[in-house]
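Backbone-to-sequence.
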């Protein structure tokens, strides 16, 4: 009930505000924008995501995102809508009779007044460093949620409340069993951030997820709807002094997971960056996510949920971006960032991975999983055109190949080249 009262209060404040007409409340002219994005990406996979086996062959392809977005803003009401087509070159015939191969990936409206806002519809949710909620922009399709978001913001404080309830059809009288496209049945998230805008920021997050854990009868139709609730709570802290930037995050999970098991899991991460000059920086950090303890009847493996996993744990996406069991992960990493010329950026990152829980390898138990080297080169040709390429290699141990499959006698590497064209093709006021 408290959530409902908070939502109603926000609506009242938004609708009433000061007793002025809608025209008087308008803070600026009507603004209309049209943006387009075309992002082809060529990849050579020789062990990315899934390691190469003895008889495996390398794959190569070009994937593509074509996205058209429109936006409206008048200072009181803003709206956004986006349609996209995600495909692989050659996937479709030259004469394609399929009447609809694209989709609406974003459609939302936002009302705001005196710092209060209400946003609803299909939208991206990104918070802090994208660890738990992120846009997953590396994936050509991205990640979007059907949700209502409300809250209050001023220059130093932000408080958001996110509510979502999912169902896969307009049901008549068959209960609330949910087996739809979204991974959760319901979500309530509260987030608060304090930011000095100078050198210190602190944020807190509390998320309650409802998962469908009901059963189906012999005929395959739902005969029982049950919801298990899992809570994720944590904090993010950033601090900057001179050329040194520090970032830390910690999360805990409790409640029951998507299979109804009791949860007791955690993760933490610490990262520091020092800028020796405008041309050269060094980054050191650690990510530590708990794994499933043997003999424990609780789920002790941490689930990073709906974050941008490609941003963490190595560019070859062996961990969390793809399945690797419930062993947990410790990622020690260091980066050298070099800007030798105007706009050009070279990023060389080295990871050492180990599992939180031991892996049985023959007669021994081991945790070391190996090392990965990621090189990324980024060059913005124009503000709206970015060229990016990368190359990665994984040097896995026996424990790594035990949990991921593949052969330790095969080289594991990956390369990509991407061109991101993202102009604003129209912007006008009326």
């Amino acid at each position: 009930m408290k959530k409902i009262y908070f939502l109603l209060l926000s609506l009242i404040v938004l609708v009433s505000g000061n007793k002025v007409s809608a025209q008087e409340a308008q803070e600026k002219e009507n603004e209309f924008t049209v943006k387009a994005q075309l992002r082809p990406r060529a990849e050579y996979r020789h062990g990315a995501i899934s390691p190469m086996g003895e008889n495996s062959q390398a794959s190569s392809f070009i994937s593509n995102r074509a996205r058209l977005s429109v936006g409206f803003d008048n200072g009181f009401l803003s709206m956004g809508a986006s349609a996209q087509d995600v495909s692989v070159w050659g996937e479709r015939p030259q004469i394609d009779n399929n009447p609809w191969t694209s989709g609406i990936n974003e459609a939302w409206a936002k009302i705001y007044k005196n710092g209060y806002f209400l946003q609803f519809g299909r939208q991206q949710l990104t918070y802090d460093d994208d660890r738990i909620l992120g846009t997953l922009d590396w994936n050509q399709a991205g990640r979007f949620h059907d949700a209502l978001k409300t809250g209050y913001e001023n220059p130093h404080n932000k408080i958001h409340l996110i509510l979502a309830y999912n169902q896969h059809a307009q049901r008549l009288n068959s209960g609330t069993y949910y087996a739809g496209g979204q991974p959760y049945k319901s979500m309530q998230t509260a987030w608060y951030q304090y930011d000095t805008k100078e050198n210190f920021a602190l944020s807190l997050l509390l998320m309650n997820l409802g998962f469908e854990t009901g059963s189906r009868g012999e005929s395959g139709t739902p005969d029982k709807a049950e919801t298990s609730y899992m809570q994720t709570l944590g904090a993010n802290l950033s601090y900057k002094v001179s050329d040194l930037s520090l970032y830390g995050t910690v999360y805990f999970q409790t409640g029951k997971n998507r299979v109804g098991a009791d949860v007791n899991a955690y993760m933490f991460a610490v990262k520091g960056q020092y800028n020796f000059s405008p041309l050269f920086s060094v980054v050191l950090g650690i990510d530590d996510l708990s794994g499933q303890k043997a003999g424990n009847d609780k789920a002790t493996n941490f689930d990073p949920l709906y974050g941008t996993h490609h941003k963490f744990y190595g560019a070859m996406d062996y961990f969390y971006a793809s399945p690797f069991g419930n062993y947990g992960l410790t990622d020690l990493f260091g980066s050298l960032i070099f800007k030798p010329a105007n706009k050009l950026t070279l990023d060389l990152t080295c990871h050492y991975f180990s599992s939180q829980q031991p892996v049985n390898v023959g007669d021994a138990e081991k945790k070391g999983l190996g090392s990965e080297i990621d090189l990324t080169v980024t060059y913005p040709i124009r503000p709206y055109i970015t060229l990016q390429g990368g190359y990665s290699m994984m040097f896995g141990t026996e424990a790594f190949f035990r949990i991921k499959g593949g052969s330790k006698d095969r080289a594991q590497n990956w390369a990509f080249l991407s061109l991101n064209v993202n102009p604003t093709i129209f912007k006008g006021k009326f």
